[in-house]
TrEMBL record:
Organism from which the protein derives: Marivita geojedonensis
Protein name from the UniProt record: 50S ribosomal protein L35
Record key words, sorted: Membrane, Transmembrane, Transmembrane helix
Annotated transmembrane regions: 6-26, 33-50
Length: 73
């Protein structure tokens, strides 16, 4: 799979799992599934960064997201 696609999917999973972690903690429950999802998202992002030559500079992240989203449409 393309590192750009994995990077964007990892970012999306990470962003979406943060509210689940906060919700579970506020209810007094253990955030098991949300934590596992967050770790998977982190692994996807790390794998994408390590397999992309030069990595992902901060200023290129919006361009990468736009490129991946436009490739799906």
């Amino acid at each position: 799979m393309d590192p750009d696609t994995l990077f964007v999917i990892g970012l999306a999973l990470g962003v979406l799992s943060i509210p689940a972690v906060v919700s579970s903690i506020s209810k007094g429950e253990r955030p098991r599934i949300a934590t596992i999802t967050l770790m998977i998202a982190g692994a996807m992002v790390v794998w994408a960064i390590s397999n992309k030559t030069g990595g992902y500079p901060i200023e290129s992240i919006p361009k990468v997201i736009a490129k991946v989203i436009s490739s799906f449409t």
